[in-house]
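pipeline/complex-builder :: batch 7 item 3
reading input block
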Amino acid sequence: MKAFRWIWGALTLALLANGFRVAMFVVPIDQEQGEISRILYYHVPSWCGMAVFFAVNLICSITYLALRNRNQARALKADALALASAEMGVVYCLIGMTTGSLWGRAAWGIWWTWDARLTTTLVLWLIYVAYLLVRRFVAGPEMRTLAAVVAIFGYLDVPIVYMSTRWWRTQHPAPVFFGGPNSGVDPSMMPALWWNMAGWLAWGIFVVMLRYAAEYRQQQADLKAARSALEAV
Amino acid sequence: MNPMFHRHLILAYAVTWVIHLGYLAYVVLKWKSAGKTQGQQS
């Protein structure tokens, strides 16, 4: 497992290095926006990463709730993965908002606007930060159950964020992908997008593997401490 | 100034790496502290 992790890490760095090369030196610039359009190659993969890891968190939270009274060992593994993927999703969401803000400043002249896309995204980030705070500060055996319920309700905001540019008029551009016949980016830009998507997704998987292993270790240590305390009574 | 070095582009790429590496450092610390707890118990 350890060797696999490091091979995966090396592969990830190679993908990211090539993604950077293609984004900066190979693909042409956007004729309207110029160099600043290259933010797209870090901005869009961040949103894809966020969507993937919040979906993993949802699946793991449901799994935890389904298994917690039947198979505690598997339920704890699902819970550890739920935590790792939620943290990764929050990181991607923060990067998506920050790169978007920098892009907005250069393209529109403003850092932020309260349009539907940006507001629902900020709400989504706050929901998952609240999820992490629940995990950090709620004491007792029901913490994991409560966190799983928060995660399931929190995920309801993900489709709202995705559909916001379709449902409401926003400052944020209309859907670039899957947005109808006039949407999409120029095919010459796609290689940079694919390389960076692959690289950042591989990075997310690498970090989630490490975070999951750390949380699982901690769970085992806590269980052992609880058993020792019971035996001492 | 070379347009390649548009400051918002550099900032966006730099911020992405700083946040990712910062989080990776946090994960490594968590890993080490969990290992230490496990070591103390055995």
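note: Chain B has a mean pLDDT of 84.
queue -> next item
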